[in-house]
Amino acid sequence: MRFKCALTSKGVMKTVNVYEPPKLVRNEFTMWKQRMKDFLNIFDAALWSSIRDGPHVPKMNLTHDENMKRIDVDEKARAILAMALSDDIYRGLLHCKSAKELWDSLCEEYEESPDVLANRAQLLIQQYEMFGYVSGESMTQQFERFVSLVSELKFRGVIYDNECLVNKFMRSLPDRWSTYTMVIRESKDLTKMTLTQLHGLLETYELELNKDKKISQGSTQVDDDTPSPQTFILFEENLLFEDLEQFHPDDLEEMDLKYQMAMLNLRRKRFIERTGRDIVGNLTSEYIKSRATCCKCQKIGHFARECKSPVAKPR
User: Fold this and answer.
1) Which domain holds residue 288?
2) Tens digit of pLDDT for each residue in 225-240?
3) b vs e for 84-113, b when ≥16 Cβ sit within 10 Å of the residue's Cβ?
4) What digits encode the pLDDT tens for the residues 272-289?
5) How many domains are there within the chain?
6) Which listed residue, of 88, 265, 307, 311, carries a Cα 20 to 30 Å from 18's Cα?
């Protein structure tokens, strides 16, 4: 018996038997209908033909074995449909003698009307427009939620072009992604970029951030939202000099400041690793004096001009 993991409509992973037909849920008939068609076609296309066209009527031009084989397909199709129904649903359909009759009865009872389908599509559109980051989730988890929503919209007949989807997802990301998404908008052709390609770029950036977090383990933590210099270099390698002319001067200055901050952040991490000391407090005159070594008495804490040691007197 074979098993696999399946994603439910609510985004929950569960283990199912690949030979077990998908169970009908009352409010999800449209999705179940498509999944059942796919399930039947996996095993034998004749099963779906039996449901679509009705039970086989024995014919004189066919042998007895051929007629019995097609009747057997009809019985199997009806049995598979029955296995997909819960007891309370199947109890009201015991009168159905063929797979086609059972299928038609299910469609008549549970298939959504055009008005209901339109309302569901409208609700999905609202979810799309309000889509955003949920606290605590990773970029990949957010991306998977977005792709599931887009897939269900397509299933309902609502289709957005790639550029619209890419821009929508980048706008939904937390503020710490703003600099990186700005670089993507200016350096990439969003009309030709797919969601999968966007996810690859964002995943590379996220891996760089996680790498920086691991480096800082065991020492005082620094700002996690500060991007690493290597991340910016990844994009600068894809930029030409004339590309920079397409940026607003303020945007260029912001990217330059971010880069310089990242370089200082990297120097700080290396300093902590080498000395075990963190950089805390303000750089005051008292702090500087506390680190100075007098060149006359060789003591720490004052300058030579302030030295009161006898050896400090001029000859």
Assistant:
1) 282-315
2) 445 444 554 454 455 4
3) bbeeebbeeeeebebbbbbbeebeeebeee
4) 888 877 766 555 666 666
5) 4
6) 88
